[in-house]
Structure formats: C-alpha cells, structure tokens
Sequence to fold (556 residues):
Amino acid sequence: MHMGSVVDAVIVGNLIGVDALSAVTLASPIIQVLHLPGLILGLGGATLAAIWLGERKIKDASDMFSACVIAGIIFSCIGALTAFWINAPLASMVVDDPKLMAFVEEYLFINLLGLPIMTLTFLTCEFLSVDNHPDLGAWMFSIAEAVNIVFDIVLVKFAGMGMEGAAAATIIGYACGLVTLIFYARSNDRMLKFRFSGVAWLKDIFNALKVGTPRVSLELMQALQIFVLNTAVLKILGVEAMEIYAVCSNTLIMAELLAGGIISVIPNICGVLFGEKDYFGIRRLMKKVLELSGILISILTVIFLIFPEEIAKLFGLENEELLPTAAVCLQIYSLSFVLYVFNSFLQHYYQTILETFLATLDTILEFFVLLIPITFLLMHYYGIYGVCAAVPISELLAIIIVEATRKFLQERGKLPQEGLLMIPKPEHDDSFDTTIEAGEKNAVGLSEKIINYCRARNVNEHTAYVLGLAVEEIAVNISRYGYENAKKKFIDINLSHDGEQWILRIRDDGIPFDPTQYQTDEEEQFLLGGITMVRQLAKNFTYTRVLNMNNTIIEI
Fold:
C-alpha cells in the first residue's frame, strides 16, 4: 500500500506538477477523516476478534466481524452520497489559492464517490490477517496498487484527466483488489463466519469503536495536525515553502513502507497471544518487531542523510533554487523516522493489550499537543527548517512523557506489572520451549524431554508422564497426517507454569487437525493413549486454527 502511495506521489509530482502534489497533501487530512469508519472498525473489531479467537470464542469473533462489515458499508455509503454538495465546502476549508483549490476539489470528489470501496478494503484486510489469511490481505493491496499505478499513467498521462484521473486510478485499483474476498469466502481455513445477530450488532460496533479509540485519536490528530500545519506553512511561509513541506511529509510514507507493515502485525498476532495468555510468545514477538523495524528504519534514515537532493527530485522538485533548502529539510525530517516507528509501536501494542489510556495519550501528544506549539515556535525563528525540526523533537518528547507516565502509574499500582510490555511475570521465569521439524523420528524423543523438565520442577510423576505422552502423541499424529506436500513442516511446543497451573501449547503449520476430536483405535490407545489420558486430567483442552496454524492449549 505504501509503495503504491510513494509511486502515486511521484507520478502526480512529475506528470501534473509539484503544486498538484501540494494539493494532494492539502486534501489528505480530509481523506483521512473519510477513511475513519473502515480503519476504526477494522482495527478495533479485528483486535477483539483476535483476542476472542485466542480465548476460543469463535461465535463472538464472527459476530464482531459481521457487525463491523455491515456498519462500515452503511457509514461509507452515506459519505459517498454527500459528494455532490460537500466537495467544494471541504476544499475551501483547506486552501484559498484558486489553482490549488481546483486541484483539491477534483481530487476530493472522486475520493468521496469511492469511499465504500476504500472502507471495505481497509476493514476486511484487518480481519483477513486475524483469520488465517494474511496472504490474501497482501494480495488485496498488491493488486490494488499495481492497478492503481497502471491507471495513474493511463488516466493522467494519456487521457489527460489530471487530478480526477489520479484519484480515479486509486479507486479502480482498490475495487480490483477486493476480488481476493472471493477466495476468502470459499476458503476452508476460515474461522470467522458471517452471522445475522440483530440488535446485538450495536454492542459489537460500540466495543469495536471503544477499542479503536486510540486509532480514532491517531487519525483525527493526524488530520487536524496536517490541516493546521499545511495552512500555517502556506499562509506564513508561502507556496514555495509548501512545496518543500509537501515533499518532506510525503517521505514519511517511506518509513511506513519499511516499518509500518511490521508494526501493524501487533494487533493481529499479539492479540491472539494475549487472548491465549502466551506471555512468552508476546515477549519474543515484540523483541523481533523492534529489532526488524529498527534495522530497516535506520537504513532508510542513513539514505536520506546521504542523498537528500536525489529524493527531492524523485518527488518532482526540480527548482534549483529550492533544492539546497529542500535537501537540508529532508535531512532534518528524516531524524524523526526512528522515533516515529517507536511511537507507532507503543500505540499499537498498548491498544492491543487494552491499555487504551497510554495509547491515546501517546497519540495526542505526538500528533497535536506537542507538535503544533513546537512547530509554530520554531517556525517563527527558523522558518521551514524549524517546521521540519519540530517533528523529531515532538516525537522524542512524546516517548519520554508516555514512558514516564507508565512508570509513575505502575509504581502506584494503577497499571499492571513492571516493564515496557506490562505483562505478568510467571512465578517461575522459565519454560520448556522448542520447535522441531515435523517427523515421527523427531517427535518420539519429546516425551522424555517433557518428563525430565517436569521432574526437575517437582511435578508429580503421573502428571509428568501424561504431559510427555500427550505431547509425543500429538506431535506424531501431526507429523503423520498434517503435512501433505507441504514445504514448511514445523511444530512448536511450549510448556509453562504459573503457580499450580501448567499450560501446554502446541502449534503447527500443517493442514487443519483438531486433537480434541481425535479418536485412537485400540492398538494406538495401548501404545500411546496420551490424548485420552490428558482429556481426563486437563482443566481445559481446546483447539482453534488461528494465524494460519493449528493451536492446541491444554491446561492442567
């Protein structure tokens, strides 16, 4: 999606002009508000659906999915119907220059008409990621942006449709991307089903909006921030400064391109882990997310510091007098990339573990409370350089204030646990955790390892024996029946304990296999019998297929 946005900006800047790119930047806060229904319902609803799938509440998750889809369609259709009479008033809110206003009006009109398509895309993509089909979500956006780029060239360059062509290309692209929903509807791996639950939908919609509150704050703060800053730069510093600022603000899409996709997996994957109370998994996931996003965004920052003029030219800025100023501004602006990614991490993570206060606080500080006054202060003294410098300064201050608030509230018992992730520490800070390549030979040795692990922690012999036998039997059956011509063949086993409760988690990436429904024959029961025995011993023995994996949890 963000690669398409970068190319889109490059095409607009080069084929129509930098003033057209400025118009896109001026229109962006209004478009962000228009997309709010799909974004909020998708993210809030999918986060709750992920937690409920982790808790094995499949019916509740399906109800949430259905309610969000219906609400998103209704809201977006109402918005599209208003296109014919609110387009001009909206454009006049963000610009008064006649040429720029004409560009903005053309761009907004088509975006308003295409609102149902964009809303359905953003909304369903979040649920696809939760419901075992992140690949279809990726294909949805890949198809959409590929078609978008092709039609950008056709409609803008050859058909001469200008801004209307650029906006129409986007809508056509995303309409084509929705074809992936056909494959989702026909998939046997779906856990979410469309259900008609009547008035109960209202409660689900309210809950989705509640959980999506930080995203609401994020989008509204971003929209308001962009509106205020665009207006200030245009009226105080002039059109040329606006052209430079438009280039700088559009480069933030590159940061989203590299790190945004990594950060955005948090609600889906972490939501399931949080519902399963897999705190070891959460720690590992968050460490990997920070490492990978940090490395990529650092590389991007170095590129901006070394090649700022080339990046400015990429977006269509060819004015030789403006290039030196634009280069310095891009270098200053790029210092915000790493801080922006970490703030995004905090917002996504705190929202996922339902600590919405911290997520909302970070959003408001980052995008409005700090950025606006700092920008006006530095703009007064340093002009466009001050506008760009305000971004990394406000990002850093937001992190400091939010983390200081978290520690303060934790020390006074207002927030759970210690540390950045705020998840419970087990009574014994260790677990048996291993990943094996599927195969009966690899599976056979697991029982002995589990039994020895339990003995070392004073688990009674019978429980240790049953746990070891159950793990081995499930792993053998996964290896025997779960992989037909599969390229990936891995089984993940985690055994942890908190007080007197032991939790065994088994995940595999094979075909759907529900061990809770598995029946052994007499010979197998004599030889193994672990599943039969563990059913009698377990407090809970549950299965679901989430994250495109079989997930079995046994609590003893």
